[in-house]
């Protein structure tokens, strides 16, 4: 709760200072990613369920926020005026859904990795819990990702005159969507231990989509690069 409160305060402060919702660049999206991890961490508390999410969500939020506030992103800490393409009501809808999707899918993928590790130790009760939560968190993230991609397509049509341009970010987002669609399909038809391999691969795909493409800094989404 303390981490959530601190990150929320940082987001609100950034919002007031910049005059727009803080989702316009990599630095701001990383803050929102940390906030998303903390939200996922709090959900089980409201449901009063004992879960294995804490070892995943807490380090994820702390690590992402620590990286955000480190000196590596010093050049983009300063808030700037939004570029014309980002001056749209779709900014909050599209980017927030994508980041919430990334956060949920990353947490679910890490739970799947833990599931694969625990499988070798034959702890059946823990295996069932990890499978239960990884499936549900990934399902939630898949919904967010789908909404994010669809809203992004509508926004792209307004801004660039085309729903889809096979931009690097769009392409990797689509690959991410396909990977987790495969997981959900296999999870329904097979047991969790076998299907957990797919989101384990998806974990790397998400980071390529979210962070790797920004390192290259090309394409229509280059405003989110370093």
Automatic annotation (TrEMBL):
The keyword Transmembrane helix applies. Residues 23-221 form the Cytochrome c assembly protein domain. The chain crosses the membrane at residues 26-46, 97-120, 132-156, 171-189, 201-223. GO terms for molecular function: heme binding. Keywords: Chloroplast, Cytochrome c-type biogenesis, Membrane, Plastid, Transmembrane, Transmembrane helix. One of its GO terms (biological process) is cytochrome complex assembly. It is a multi-pass membrane protein. Pfam families: Cytochrom_C_asm (PF01578). The keyword Transmembrane applies. It is found in: Membrane. Its main location: membrane. GO terms for cellular component: plasma membrane. Signal peptide: none annotated. InterPro entries: Cyt_c_assembly, Cyt_c_biogenesis_CcsA, Cyt_c_biogenesis_CcsA/CcmC. This is CcsA. It comes from Iodes cirrhosa.
